[in-house]
């Protein structure tokens, strides 16, 4: 009879995420993840095969993780635009320092050069775009956006703004609060598309 697993893959991946946040993908080792998870490195090899396998498992979580941010935001904020700001703010809040962004860019190198990582990154980007578009469509239906707003085009602009703010903040604006900076830029983007306030 196989021995039961005392530590779930989900718990290991949470530990891997913490270690990744400290070390980045280049310096991450199975030993560091094992220490964070309180396991032997051999256990990680058995579960994931290699460091690359572990990183792929983390990348597979990104899309569902993004949906979770949006689901929680919808639950907490019935107004679609409030939910949009909250979800994107929660995703951005993972980046606390320029070093955090550097680790994200290092992971992006994997996304751009390794087909398996690229496919998973594309799934994540598609999911985020879909979630943004759905909230903007809900905002239009609720009368929060001007009649005739092209919500699909606006969703693309919102997603570009989100990613651009992360890069620019990490380069020059890290004295400011990242989430507030993101919200300010979203305000600028969405202002022309908001429905006029009744007099």
From TrEMBL:
Residues 29-48 bind DNA. InterPro entries: Homeodomain-like_sf, HTH-type_TetR-like_transc_reg, HTH_TetR, Tet_transcr_reg_TetR-rel_C_sf. SUPFAM superfamilies: Homeodomain-like, Tetracyclin repressor-like, C-terminal domain. Residues 6-66 form the HTH tetR-type domain. PROSITE patterns: HTH_TETR_2. Gene3D superfamilies: Tetracycline Repressor, domain 2. It comes from the Bacteria. Keywords: DNA-binding, Transcription, Transcription regulation. GO terms for molecular function: DNA-binding transcription factor activity; transcription cis-regulatory region binding. This is AcrR family transcriptional regulator.
